[in-house]
Amino acid sequence: MASLAVRYRYHGGVGTFTPLFSRWETVMLRFDLRRLILLLALTAVLLTVINGFYSGYQVQRDILIRNTLEAHRVYAAKVAYNTEVFLRATQQNLRVNAERLVEHMDDAAALQRELDLLQRSSDNFNNLVVFDERGVVRAATALPQLIGRRLESPGTHEALAKRRALISEPYRAVTGQLVMMISQPLFDRASHYRGYVGGSIRLREKNILHGLLGEHYYRDGSYLYVVDGKGRLIFHHDPARIMQDASSNPVVAAAMRGESGARPVTNTRGVAMLAGYAYVPSAHWGVVSQRPRAQALAELDQLMLTMAQYAAPLLLIIVVVVWWLSLQIARPLRQLAREAAAMDSHGATPRIEAVRSWYFEAQQLKQALLVGMRAMQQQLNRFRQESNTDALTGLGNRRELDSVLDDWKYSRQPFAVLMIDIDFFKSVNDSYGHDTGDQALTALAQLMRDSAREGDVVCRMGGEEFVMLLPGADAIGAERVAERLCSCVEAYRVPGLPPLTVSIGVAAGIADEAPEALLREADDALYQAKQQGRNRVVLAVV
Ligand SMILES: Nc1nc2c(ncn2[C@@H]2O[C@H](COP(=O)(O)OP(=O)(O)OP(=O)(O)O)[C@@H](O)[C@H]2O)c(=O)[nH]1
Hints:
The protein is an alpha+beta fold and about 550 residues long. About 50% of the residues lie in helices and about 20% in strands. The chain has helices at about 25-30, 35-100, 110-120, 155-160, 210-215, 250-255, 295-340, 350-355, 360-385, 400-410, 425-430, 435-450, 475-490, 515-530; strands at about 5-10, 15-20, 125-130, 135-140, 165, 170, 180-185, 195-200, 225, 235, 260-265, 270-280, 285-290, 415-420, 455-460, 465-470, 500-510, 535-540. The strands form four sheets. Strands 3, 4, 5, 6, 7 and 8 form a six-stranded antiparallel sheet that branches. A five-stranded antiparallel sheet has the order 10-9-13-12-11. A five-stranded mixed sheet has the order 15-16-14-17-18, sandwiched between helices. The structure holds guanosine-5'-triphosphate. Guanosine-5'-triphosphate binds near residues 429 and 434. InterPro entries: dCache_1 (IPR033479), Diguanylate_Cyclase (IPR050469), GGDEF_dom (IPR000160), Nucleotide_cyclase (IPR029787), Rev_trsase/Diguanyl_cyclase (IPR043128), Sensor-like_sf (IPR029151).
């Protein structure tokens, strides 16, 4: 807390310190406690909300990405598996039929019949062709004009050269159509190679494979494509992209390596995708199912918006509660500060006592203020007492007398004044010393105190002169008190001194605008008592 400690700059002279604040403290001083609490609480609430939304968004985003990747991985794997099953079944079908076909190699009509039968038995192929061992077409289902011709295609050469079951790379046929061929060698019973039967599948036309790979529901921006072993697109919802090279795409490259899985990827067009991919072993194809990342996450934005809508009323309630709480917390401190600033005003203590300090610190502050004020009040009372008291006799002094008369003036208090003066006191001092004189003054003061009733005011005016104020007393009553005091003094013996006497002037009246007039009258009467020989009481004639 050292940084918040108040420092002071001295300007010289008394009370010329002004507090020094750092720039930060100066900024903070613009806030009162209520605003400070509000600011802090709202900052905390805001940070909590932002943190909640941010972490919620992150978690949801990760879940969404994971789920999307998994869904596309599963879908790509399923499609690849079905394609693999289809290709193997088709190869198996050709292998079985090859045994029958080879028996009719020397009977063109029978061979054509068998081939037509095979063509009609399934939708697997668009065209079936039987080649002899030189690559001459012996029978064909869809293109009879090919019969008798020798075909010089890469697929034909490969099939003739390898003499085993093959699945060709997709290629452009003489018709210009994109096709692939599944071929099966023909061996007779003596195991002589007699050629091969090839089934061509047009990738862009209706057949089972097209049904498997070419038709998908492209909802939510999701779509599926297939690449061949060279990374060329052979199935894609955009026809313009067929046979385009996609091998630079990381998931295509992974699928070409025979891998299956899922990962975020940026495609060849720079679009961020969430892709699942799988490998079709028998054809060396890759199947990729994917969805644009932005479209997948668009749902999350909507979710966040919905969450914000749900959270908004609660947030509003929190703000109102915080505002109300800040008021409640700041209120006792503001009240205490206001009352402390005016603690010298009338009724400050009960006002501070009335402040509702409902929490610990405010209560502590209130108690501290009250204790401080009580201590200050006691100190003031002591000062007032001391300044209104005669140090030697303990009686009230002239200030006390004035103060009493002031009070009585407003209540128009009837009262009598006894102006008392010790006779020949100078000679006491001169003969017995000043200290003995002081003892005599103290003793006579006590005599006066003793002869006063409750409510009477006894003051030493200075020197050997005293005043007694008798509230409610009339002149006769006051004269009686004065006579009695005279007798008491005369009868009293101060040790080491001869008997002392006093002269008393008495006046009675009402404390009005100028109660001092009554004092003057009593003083005049005292003067007369002195003149008349001392040790007597003279009543002023009003
Ligand atoms: N011991 C003592 N003497 C005081 C004090 N104050 C005043 N005196 C003395 O009181 C004496 C007053 O004398 P004066 O005013 O002449 O009056 P007095 O001798 O009493 O004569 P009268 O009043 O005319 O009877 C002076 O000698 C003062 O020094 C005090 O506090 N202590």
